[in-house]
Write a structure and sequence with these properties.
Length: about 150
């Protein structure tokens, strides 16, 4: 296994650990309001829709590693027209929505950690995509990273 593959598997393992950490039974309550609970439900649904749409669009090109698969093509339509990393976007929306829905301040703060991780992982991923796809720079200029 090459050094790059090891690094990518370590990134994937760290991502799984961080996502599992989100579900630690830690509760930091805050005064909630009905509109925040409804907002949380909306974010969870929107995140699930974004996530499932991205997974469906990627199909066989989906990989747990940041490197694009050998048969991958650059997707710039559908959900990828609005977000360069819709899977990360969907996960962040779901996790944030869940935190609002259950009025858990710990989970809201944890979402910032996840957002930071996904940001740095996406920066690494984009370096690989720029090497693989000549048109990625143009795509990057017209499409946001997450939302």
């Amino acid at each position: 296994m090459t050094g790059r593959k090891k690094r990518e598997w370590m990134l994937f393992a760290l991502q799984l650990l961080l996502m599992l950490g989100y579900f630690l039974p830690v509760y930091l309550p805050y005064k909630s309001y009905t509109f925040l609970i409804l907002f949380g439900g909306f974010l969870m649904l929107a995140g699930a829709l974004v996530l499932l749409t991205a997974l469906f669009q990627l199909r066989n090109a989906l990989s747990p590693l940041p490197s694009p698969r050998p048969n991958a093509v650059l997707l710039t339509t559908g959900i990828f027209k609005y977000s360069r990393h819709p899977i990360y976007t969907g996960l962040i929306l779901c996790f944030t929505g869940f935190a609002f829905y259950f009025s858990n301040g710990f989970k809201l703060l944890y979402c910032l950690l996840l957002l930071g991780f996904f940001y740095f992982k996406s920066v690494y991923e984009e370096r690989l995509l720029i090497q693989r796809f000549q048109s990625y720079d143009d795509y990057k200029k017209r499409t946001r990273r997450f939302l």
